[in-house]
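Inputs:
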Amino acid sequence: MGESGSKISTLSLAILGLIAQRPGSGYDIRKVFATTPMGSFSSSPGAIYPALKRLEKNGWVRGEIQNEGMLRPKQVFSLTDEGKRALRERLLLPVTRDDIIWNLDGLILRFAFMELVVGREATLQFLHQYQREAESYVESLERTREEMKAQMNTSANLALEHGIESYRMNADWAKRGIKAFEALKG
Amino acid sequence: MGESGSKISTLSLAILGLIAQRPGSGYDIRKVFATTPMGSFSSSPGAIYPALKRLEKNGWVRGEIQNEGMLRPKQVFSLTDEGKRALRERLLLPVTRDDIIWNLDGLILRFAFMELVVGREATLQFLHQYQREAESYVESLERTREEMKAQMNTSANLALEHGIESYRMNADWAKRGIKAFEALKG
DNA sequence: AATTTCATGTAACCAGTTACATGATTCA
DNA sequence: TGAATCATGTAACTGGTTACATGAAATT
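Outputs:
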């Protein structure tokens, strides 16, 4: 299936990243989502098992059945070469303003997997892009605030400020991340 | 329809809040979503018109047809009394930890409408709850970091710190919001 | 006259939610 | 042996996405 470029959901990316770190069953993935602060993914079986099936159909993961012939086969999934390629491809995608606005969680998720999957250089590049886009969005929000200051009540204004501060914090975080990675063995 | 307590999507809440501020057409709502930093809602007609229909079926909004007999009737929607009640009800819901984790955007959206719809006292109460839950979640994330520090690589650790800083910022924002509202005429 | 903007909608699709269902294993 | 946990799944539903379709009004 050459459709490596197709879009995938955040949940699918999360699953791909998790089993890239270490192969595991659907239940293992559910446990991670249920017990760690990883993203905000539902650990519901109705989400995870179908997602695993889709990934398998895509040729990105392969399930190895543990107990042959049993009614409830336990399956341990691992990444195929194609799956590794697909994951890498998605982690290397440029950071766009749209991502920053509509899919910030997805970006942090990508980041969490980057060091292991695409290495230090690419991670640094990601952080630089992230910082740049966050800062540019802060500027545009500040312009909006100036323009609309008059017509906004206290809470609408505070809500807008929430956005500004949030993206400022994100830019700062990226800056600190850059330092941390630069300090890492070159 | 007495199902005022039923759950509604963030998009529906956003629409309800918008037309609470001033009645408008589906197109007006689309414009707001497309041109202001309000939430992160798609302005796609396939989302908004069906949502308006659902709200109308619920008895929460009423559309007044502008040009009788035409093929494409322009409709201006306004809140019904039931709609006002339903909106108020949802804005007054307590801030839970689950909201903070899974639906922070929804909370900010609620906040943006609060001053107008439920007034200063309720807004202040909301902000206090928000601050408390954000701070408590920061503490729990910090505990997680201590526990997992050893087993995490640089990027996973930074991703966790992103969460910590983000919620700290949220707590600070709420604190500032409280001051701003307390400064308002009592 | 042609293009843009205003304005409303539908149909096919898809992923996630909720609720239900089943069975194996471990431990009290 | 009964309860909790491990473990996998499905079916119905819902809401949002994408893409398409239509037409009126305003602008160039």
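Remarks. The helical segments of chain A are 10-21, 26-35, 45-57, 81-91, 97-102, 104-148, 154-183. The interface with chain B takes residues 36-37, 40, 101-102, 108-109, 111-116, 123, 141, 144, 153-156, 158-163, 165-166, 169-170, 172-173, 176-177, 180-181, 184 of chain A (CB under 8 Å).
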